[in-house]
């Protein structure tokens, strides 16, 4: 394997795993906090059990997220030394603040896990809220650093030198808000549907139904509300990308030719040689509106982008279509669920509704991976958009391919271990808390 390809593959693999752990670590504490709040207000023991069960999941993903995040920090220096040499002093602030947020999250999680019956109940609940807030802040800060790569700011680039560095302006670059908003909502969608899907499956199997129904409802409400909000953040992101990175926007849509007005391409197979998209559905005027908020505006095509500056169209287009398709599917499930809550309460006890959530269990995380592919691959061939090419930032050290194989084995092993731990936790949860409930009632 070519060292350049190996370095990119290793980074992609690491990010692909870490983003799942990060999303769950950002969102699950809020689920936990809601269940805990309901326990404190209602004294319904089932909510306490849900809180304790979810807190164990939060601990598992906090640990694995810490490991995968540490690996990523080392990889930035080892695989991309030229990039870190110049970029580190500019966008180091969000990384240092992320470390602070992580430190606060670790302390708060320790207080929460070991604070049962030791702290004031409401202070104990507050420590769980702090876990969620610091985890969310940590994710936003990392995304701000990534946004800087898409929209470099806070320095002057003169004759190959990075001068007049302003870390505040670098952190709050033009892309940070749209990316942070889109990623944060995506984390709630993915985690909400995944957790709701697992509990829906347990309900269908008839295992500790009351426990899983309460857990399902909390997760489902978070996931469905976020799914309805996500298209709004997607529209903000699309307009931002169209303005700052026309090559990425054109690749997302496989938009080979500049048009005024431009049609939205739904599906299709890009033919980069003939500059066409086969078997696609074209919706007139829609792309112009998505790009500029004007149905009759011009949208830049790949024909205006130098060949050497174009990203791989097929990968970006397919990833974008997967993200959009799954997002729409989850939004439709959300509308069905809202209808069940407000108008058709009898649907809430039907198997077909629960099966919809079971089917949707992996959708959110597949969409997150696809969206991250759009963000990263769509920026190519730049590692810092318009400033530094990816090929110029990679390490000159030979033998990176062996490192890639080792890390692949490590991450696959980690995935199996985490999956086993979660499976065991889900299998045990019903039995453990059934016993706990009985003991509580006895006393």
Low-confidence stretches: 434-443
Global outline: globular
Helical amount: over 70%
**Classification by helices and strands:** mainly alpha
Give the number of DSSP strands. Answer: 6
**Radius of gyration, in angstroms, nearest whole number:** 23 Å
Instruction: Spell the H/E element sequence.
Output: HHHHEEHHHHEEHHHHEEHH
- What gap, in angstroms, lies between the N and C termini? 65 Å
On the 0-100 scale, what is the average pLDDT?
Answer: 85
Q: Please state how the strands of the largest beta sheet are arranged side by side.
A: 1-2
Beta-strand percentage range:
5-15%
H/I helix tally: 14
The biggest sheet amounts to:
2 strands, antiparallel
Number of domains: 1
Question: How would you describe this structure in keywords?
Answer:
443 residues; mainly alpha; 6 strands; disordered C terminus
In short, what is this structure?
This protein has helices at 3-42, 45-79, 81-114, 121-150, 167-171, 176-204, 209-244, 246-253, 286-292, 313-342, 351-359, 363-377, 390-393, 400-442; strands at 156-158, 161-163, 264-271, 276-283, 382-384, 388-389. With 443 residues, it is mainly α. It has one domain.
Structural commentary:
- With 443 residues, this protein is mainly alpha-helical.
- It has one domain (3-442).
- Helix content is 73%, strand content 6%.
- It has helices spanning 3-42, 45-79, 81-114, 121-150, 167-171, 176-204, 209-244, 246-253, 286-292, 313-342, 351-359, 363-377, 390-393, 400-442, and strands at 156-158, 161-163, 264-271, 276-283, 382-384, 388-389.
- The strands form three sheets. It has a two-stranded antiparallel sheet. Strands 3-4 form a two-stranded antiparallel sheet. The protein has a two-stranded antiparallel ribbon with strand order 5-6.
- Strand 1 and strand 2 form a beta hairpin.
- Helix 3 (81-114) runs antiparallel to helix 4.
- The protein is globular and about 65 Å long.
- The chain starts with a helix and ends with a helix.
- The model is unreliable at 434-443 (pLDDT under 50).
